[in-house]
Design brief:
By secondary structure, the protein is mostly helical. 81% of the residues lie in helices and 0% in strands. It contains eight helices and no strands. The longest helix is centred in the N-terminal third of the chain and has 46 residues. It is elongated, with a radius of gyration of 26 Å.
Length: 234
């Protein structure tokens, strides 16, 4: 006798969204900005020394700036959450009936019937912590930030920027003919942009090939523009 098949549905959700977002922010700028800078300098100077020096300086400054930006953004998010949390704590004490009505409004938006809403509101508001958590999540749409989010975000963005920045710059470090270094840099960076865009699409739920093409086009256009402007000026 055949055994019944196990048709239990197992959902797979990607949960490291903050980490991936930070890597995407750091890598995308790290690949694009130093790439455009190196291409632009290649159009106006001879040799690779100046390109390498300027590129290293840009990577150092860019990674610090991007990391600091990520830190401040995460800190702002944390402070906003804490301020709203404090406000909700005050309001369930000072304006309990008003806050209960807000709970009821949320439940109505979910399509619950009135005879179900009243006991649900009573149950939710019976525990202050559960009540506050419900209001933060379902009224304000706020999730509690991870405590080390600001630090982790700044480090991840900064390191991702450095990794991305060295890809277009590395050919100039090992190849001393500017034209050859530029061609290798273009090939390496466009390949990296395509792979990065594809992987980004996989993780973010968008079409990987479309994401890869868009990422490559943006980086390529930025470098081509910088190179053209530098040629015209020089």
């Amino acid at each position: 006798m055949n055994q019944p098949k196990n048709n239990k549905h197992i959902e797979k959700h990607f949960t490291a969204t903050d980490l991936i977002r930070d890597i995407v922010i750091g890598m995308s700028d790290g690949l694009t900005v130093p790439f455009a800078l190196a291409a632009g300098l290649s159009g106006s100077v001879t040799g690779t020394n100046i390109v390498v020096i300027a590129g290293l300086a840009e990577i150092a400054a860019g990674s610090i700036a991007m990391g600091l930006g990520g830190y401040l953004a995460a800190r702002t998010e944390q402070e906003h959450y804490e301020n709203e949390l404090a406000r909700e704590r005050r309001e369930i004490i000072e304006l309990p009936e008003y806050e209960k009505e807000e709970v009821a409004d949320v439940l109505r938006e979910w399509g619950l019937q009135e005879d179900i809403i009243e006991p649900a509101v009573k149950q939710i508001s019976s525990d202050p912590n559960r009540w506050i958590s419900f209001m933060m999540k379902h009224e304000l749409g706020l999730e509690e930030p991870e405590p080390k989010r600001a630090r982790n975000s700044s480090i991840t963005i900064g390191l991702s920027y450095i990794v991305g920045g060295f890809i277009p710059l590395f050919p100039y470090m090992i190849i001393h003919r500017d034209v050859s270094a530029l061609l290798v840099s273009v090939a390496a960076t466009l390949t990296a942009l395509f792979v990065f865009g594809y992987v980004k699409g996989k993780f973010t739920g968008s079409k990987p090939l479309k994401s890869a093409v868009q990422t490559t086009l943006v980086g390529g256009m930025a470098a081509a523009t910088a190179f053209t402007v530098a040629k015209i000026i020089s």
